[in-house]
Structure prediction request, 321 residues.
Amino acid sequence: MSDLRSSTMPAFDVTVVGELNLDLILYGLPRELEPERELLADKLSLTLGSSSAIFAHNLSALGSKVGFISRIGDDSLGQIALDRLSEGGVDVSKVRRVPGQTKTGLTVILTRPTNRNILTYPGTMFEMCFEDLDLDYLASGKHFHLSSYFLHRKLRPRIEELFRHMKERGLTTSLDTNDDPDDLWEGDCREVLRYVDVFMPNAREAMKIAGVADVAAAVARLADLVPVLAVKLGPEGAMAISRGVKLNEPRRKVDAVDPVGAGDSFDAGFLHEFVRGADLAACLSAGNLAGAFSTTRPGGTEAFRDRAHLDDFYRRNGVRR
Ligand SMILES: Nc1ncnc2c1ncn2[C@@H]1O[C@H](COP(=O)(O)OP(=O)(O)OP(=O)(O)O)[C@@H](O)[C@H]1O
Ligand SMILES: [Mg+2]
Prediction:
């Protein structure tokens, strides 16, 4: 009897499909990037990047069991990204490493006194396809999540089918589209929402996807399409709407040093509670807390990688983990 029960128990709390790459961040560059000059940075950080991987890493740090599928190249940067995710406790056994011309993606962030340049080589993230995915593995979780809808160029025509399949297999689902680099916001993304339980855009993305220029109107429109809508509002906190209940929560006050990955961390905090059956207010509060915590260190995963910092922050905020 116990054997039977354990064989039908979900292997993961959350399974994730998404992109996996590193962020190379240079700090302290001069204001002007003069061509052909040797320009000096004063600090360098090579850290886990990509929305999906940051989400998976930080969700695992919070205590969820996470399985992750992606496609990387057969190169050393891909290996470092994979190792980082694996060190964070995420199961990466189904990540596909594909030899060939296309390398693992990389984002280079040039930090200058007043602004940043963000340069991305998409690499394998544009090439992940439906055949790269092990559907039985993905369906062995309680919940399925996909981030960065518009970066999955090859997979995109079948993302709706992927979500439908996960719903048919009995999982709850969530989607964070993030930005559309082409700024087109085509309607296929709204079709996918039919199979999404928790939709997690920021305010700008909500307006673009709803096709209106006003946050309140966008929220009203999108809340009719999904059981749970969580909208991230940056330093103003976040809101969540479900079945006619609308909650707003201001941001948690922290010494924020870097907003990179705050949205992915919000998703991690929110869904960590959601898969445990918490109510809307508890999910929203956990999202806000994880988003705020993420900003306390540069990069998307550095705060969560520091176990003592994580434990101390959550204890000071009255959360027992
Ligand atoms: N300065 C801040 N102080 C406290 N909390 C913050 C701050 N900035 C962001 N947060 C928290 O992080 C959440 C997500 O941030 P944001 O709205 O920037 O998401 P996003 O635009 O999706 O970001 P990302 O670039 O990671 O995709 C916010 O809803 C809030 O809870
Ligand atoms: Mg985001």
Q: What stands out?
A: The longest helix spans residues 280-294. The chain is about 35% helix and 20% strand. Confidence is low (pLDDT under 50) at residues 1-7. The pocket of adenosine-5'-triphosphate (ligand 1) is lined by residues 51, 178, 202, 232-235, 237-238, 251-252, 254, 256, 259, 261-264, 266, 288, 291-292, 295 (CB under 6 Å).
